[in-house]
């Protein structure tokens, strides 16, 4: 008899059994967050793994755990320090939400993770799938997850048409995820279906010959592996433009802290203007004088999920900025060996490294660089 949900005669237990047998032999068992498993370690790994490959996450996770070994250490840290350890990982709202959620966990739950999915979902940055993953992976609770890898496996196995971001498609996939999640070995099954999507049922060139559930995969039977899941409707990415002022004075390079929300929220970066022509005016208004000289560097494009940012870096040398320039909250003079704990956006780090590599140690004397020797 064909089940009305799965569209096949297969039982959910059969799907899980095949997947678990494959996982026992071929799954990933040595990832850092699979050792000394706690809700905290699972949570941090799940947040880091959003939109980010495992290979990229591993060194960040290890450094993060070394500095913030538990939720109390994370809650007690400053946002600057948290974002510094997040620098380069991207999607910085994840780091800010992680910090805020840690503080709420300490304040409201004495640092303990609630065992109810809805309570976890109420914390900043934790959605339904992440909350379920925390409970399933750390405690074996019967919760279904639906991250990007799982969506791909289920959309192909059941030939679910439509972009997975659509509400109706999401509802269908959630129903499948809940139906197929077994009552036993929930943690292993959860890791197994994620591993299957990450290593076998991949976005490009899925290895169907190695898949434990390929025999009744509808996408494979219909030759739809390359077209499922249905891609997101393409939208032209808008191009924004900005000039970053790399202002170099006697004490180093001027950095400003960005507002707590929005693009690169809470990170440190260069002052920004709309065009190169505004560089001198900005210095006059903010530093109390004209720059000694300025020159534009090679522009480049930094790509975000929804838009591209065309960045024109402008190096600006100043000699004697007004004394009040540093009275503004959220400004520092940066040197390559100082302020090591600041959270910096990737383009800012790139430009600071470029300046150091090309010219040597940052030194603002007379608006020039001194070679480090």
Automatic annotation (TrEMBL):
Binds 1 [4Fe-4S] cluster. Pfam families: EndIII_4Fe-2S, HHH, HhH-GPD, NUDIX_4. CDD domains: ENDO3c, NUDIX_DNA_Glycosylase_C-MutY. It comes from the Bacteria. Residues 48-199 form the HhH-GPD domain. Adenine glycosylase active on G-A mispairs. MutY also corrects error-prone DNA synthesis past GO lesions which are due to the oxidatively damaged form of guanine: 7,8-dihydro-8-oxoguanine (8-oxo-dGTP). This is Adenine DNA glycosylase. Belongs to the Nth/MutY family. Keywords: 4Fe-4S, DNA damage, DNA repair, Glycosidase, Hydrolase, Iron, Iron-sulfur, Metal-binding. Its cofactor is [4Fe-4S] cluster. It is an enzyme of class 3 (hydrolase). GO terms for biological process: base-excision repair; mismatch repair. Gene3D superfamilies: Helix-hairpin-Helix base-excision DNA repair enzymes (C-terminal), Hypothetical protein, domain 2, Nucleoside Triphosphate Pyrophosphohydrolase. Its EC number is 3.2.2.31. One of its GO terms (molecular function) is adenine/guanine mispair binding. It catalyses: Hydrolyzes free adenine bases from 7,8-dihydro-8-oxoguanine:adenine mismatched double-stranded DNA, leaving an apurinic site.
